């Protein structure tokens, strides 16, 4: 793979082409990262249409199949880390390539994209459809920017996904209390923190002792890190999902009291929530050993609890609640504790900008897009506030 290194005030991309060392220099780091992606996508060769020292000088528009262009587009994303680029390429290969991959980019029409999207939407969650369709749209955006096509064929069909929202499950306070009681005591503080802070799993399990301030008024924690995975699926500590993800979150008294024993006697760099030997808690370990048994107990009566539950795949259940009296029909995932947190805030009338800040969303628009369908819960409060306005 090509490499990037800083030389003086510039950034140099280095690679070997047919055994010969080559390099190109850029003033901006992002430009160097993007060019490195083009070199890697071209098989460690100078990208088509690129002149050393001048940049892309294309006299005749090259013809790419969507497969060829997608690989270039994804590899050249300076804002994405290696794992994210690998995920994009995986999703493209699994969901798009077999349908549109051998078509020339310039020959793909909105009708072709619409047909693909219609078939792809069947039996897939709204979130999956939105993510993959959005990824494909950005591949075409790159093609527009590079003058391969004039307009993005996904623009007219992509709107089908904008009104949909992720499949969410919201727990009432009583439902959460019953669930929490079925979690092993050593994992209750983590489970409580997830629902009272709205932290993502990777953020909560990356918290270190020096980021917890129980003496503050009110007690708080500072989110600066999150567990991520590299292209080889290995965990590492990186920054939160967005720039706004670096934030301070206030804690209620119960959560602060639950965390206090966990940080006693630990050093500043120690994890707050950890395994017995102080290591990272894998999400699948928590899911299999804590979450699934608790949800099974809540959703299956004693007569049905012994039935084979099947296999939990990618945080999805392949079995149904039994529906007997006294059982819960909801099937929440651990991430639904974040959604539950937001539903409680909205029900309490907390302003959307405050929720956005607490969640670490990049913008208020993101918060509204994800949780806007819950706003109807405030209708009664809004109407009560307007009551008697006519005097």
Which blocks of ≥5 consecutive residues have pLDDT under 50? 308-318
User: In DSSP terms, counting alpha (H) and pi (I) runs of 4 or more, how many helices?
Assistant: 17
Number of strands: 10
Question: Topology as H/E string?
Answer: EEEHEEHHHHHHHHHEEEEEHHHHHHH
Helix content bin: 40-55%
Q: What would you say the CATH architecture of the largest domain is?
A: Orthogonal Bundle
- CATH level 3 topology of the largest domain: DNA polymerase, domain 1
Domain tally: 2
Description:
With 391 residues, the chain is an alpha+beta fold. It has two domains: 3-161, DNA polymerase, domain 1 (Orthogonal Bundle), CATH 1.10.150; 179-193 and 200-305, no CATH class. The chain is built from 17 helices and ten strands. It has helices at residues 29-41, 66-75, 82-95, 97-100, 110-121, 126-145, 155-158, 173-181, 188-197, 201-204, 253-263, 283-299, 302-305, 336-347, 352-359, 364-371, 379-386, and strands at residues 3-7, 10-17, 20-26, 50-51, 55-56, 212-213, 220-223, 226-229, 235-238, 247-250. The strands form four sheets. Strands 1-2-3 form a three-stranded antiparallel beta sheet, with helices on one face. A three-stranded antiparallel beta sheet has the order 6-7-10, with no helix packed on it. Helix 2 (66-75) runs antiparallel to helix 3 and helix 15 (352-359) packs across helix 16 (364-371). The chain is globular and about 65 Å long.
């Amino acid at each position: 793979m090509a490499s990037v290194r800083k030389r003086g005030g510039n950034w140099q991309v280095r690679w070997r082409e047919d055994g010969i060392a080559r390099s190109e220099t850029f003033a901006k780091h992002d430009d160097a990262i993007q060019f490195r992606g083009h070199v890697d996508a071209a098989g460690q060769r100078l990208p088509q249409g690129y002149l050393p020292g001048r940049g892309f000088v294309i006299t005749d528009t090259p013809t790419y199949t969507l497969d060829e262009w997608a690989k270039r587009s994804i590899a050249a994303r300076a804002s994405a880390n290696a794992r994210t680029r690998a995920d994009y390429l995986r999703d493209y290969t699994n969901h798009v390539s077999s349908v549109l991959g051998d078509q020339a980019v310039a020959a793909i029409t909105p009708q072709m994209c619409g047909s693909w999207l219609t078939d792809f939407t069947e039996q897939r969650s709204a979130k999956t459809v939105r993510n993959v369709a959005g990824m494909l749209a950005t591949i075409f955006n790159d093609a527009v920017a590079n003058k391969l096509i004039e307009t993005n064929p996904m623009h007219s069909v992509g709107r089908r996904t904008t009104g949909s929202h992720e499949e969410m499950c919201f727990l009432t306070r009583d439902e959460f209390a019953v669930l929490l009681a079925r979690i092993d005591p050593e994992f209750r503080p983590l489970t409580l923190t997830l629902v009272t802070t709205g932290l993502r799993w990777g953020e909560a399990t990356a918290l270190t002792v020096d980021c917890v301030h129980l003496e503050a008024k009110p007690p708080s924690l500072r989110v600066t890190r999150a567990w991520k995975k590299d292209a080889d699926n290995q965990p590492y500590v990186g920054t939160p999902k967005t720039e706004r993800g670096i934030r301070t979150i206030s804690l209620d008294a119960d959560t602060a009291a639950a965390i206090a024993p966990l940080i006693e006697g630990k050093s500043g760099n120690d994890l707050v929530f950890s395994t017995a030997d102080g290591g990272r808690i894998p999400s699948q370990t928590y899911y299999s050993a804590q979450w699934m048994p608790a949800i099974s107990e809540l959703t299956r009566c004693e007569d049905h609890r012994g039935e084979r539950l099947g296999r939990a795949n990618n945080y999805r259940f392949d079995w149904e609640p039994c529906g007997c009296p006294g059982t819960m029909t909801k099937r929440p995932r651990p991430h639904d504790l974040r959604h539950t947190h937001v539903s409680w805030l909205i029900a309490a009338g907390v302003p959307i900008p405050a929720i956005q800040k607490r969640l670490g969303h990049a913008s208020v628009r993101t918060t509204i897009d994800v949780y806007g369908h819950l706003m109807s819960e405030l209708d009664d409060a809004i109407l009560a506030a307007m009551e008697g306005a006519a005097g």
